[in-house]
Amino acid sequence: DIQMTQSPSSLSASVGDRVTITCRASQSISSYLNWYQQKPGKAPKLLIYAASSLQSGVPSRFSGSGSGTDFTLTISSLQPEDFATYYCQQSYSIEWTFGQGTKVEIK
Amino acid sequence: QLQLQESGPGLVKPSETLSLTCTVSGGSISSSSYYWGWIRQPPGKGLEWIGSIYYSGSTYYNPSLKSRVTISVDTSKNQFSLKLSSVTAADTAVYYCARGDPLTGPYWGQGTLVTVSS
Questions:
Q1: Torsion of CA A45, B61, A69, A105, to 10 degrees
Q2: What is the pLDDT of residues A24-49, one digit of tens each?
Q3: According to the model, what pLDDT value does residue A69 have?
Q4: Which among A3, A6, A37 has a CA at the least distance from the CA of A100?
Q5: Which residues of A touch B106 (CB under 8 A)?
Q6: What is the pLDDT of residue A37?
Q7: Residue A43 distance to chain B (closest CA, Å)
Q8: Nearest to A1, CA basis, from B70, B49, B90, B74
Q9: Band of residue B25 on the pLDDT scale cut at 50, 70, 90
Q10: Cβ atoms B36, B23 nearer than 8 A
Q11: Fewer Cβ in 10 A, N or C end of chain A?
Q12: Are B18 and B82 in contact (CB under 8 A)?
């Protein structure tokens, strides 16, 4: 199966900061990489699909990049509502796998 | 608008079988463009893919759960279902159903909490 390694596992940042989260696949997954935001008690919310496509309704401060094995989620200017846990997920294979998650906390 | 809704018992006894159904509305489960899956998340932990199915009935399961999982589809009801046998407390989780779409990304239901306890 395809392993997804996400880093860091947590970070502390301030409102207005630029935040970058990385995800690495154990083999090439082309651009079949999705990013989610999850808040406590809620379902994961799709932010980015196909590595760099912004889901409808998601603010433009979120962006994704990468292909092959290395991917990045960037929040250009962190807002109070962005404090949450973020997951990457590969859909190259029907056997989905997820990163371990990155918890973004208030500094 | 597409909606996926999980339903089933919120409490299951140890050693019994967990059964959940996902009802799809606003779209057809019979489309060859998509596949349908189950994911779970134990309290305070990460996301784990359980398995997926095409409308034709082809199934794919997480190797760690394969011996206990059955996923099926009922095209007449626009539903697909999950059965997980011989459950233990470790199977307590929020269970999500989802649609897999290679072009526009996955679409998830809101999830349902299943607790395994006597």
A1: 30
A2: 999 999 999 999 999 999 999 999 99
A3: 98
A4: A6
A5: 34, 46, 49, 89, 91, 96
A6: 98
A7: 5
A8: B49
A9: very high
A10: no
A11: C
A12: yes
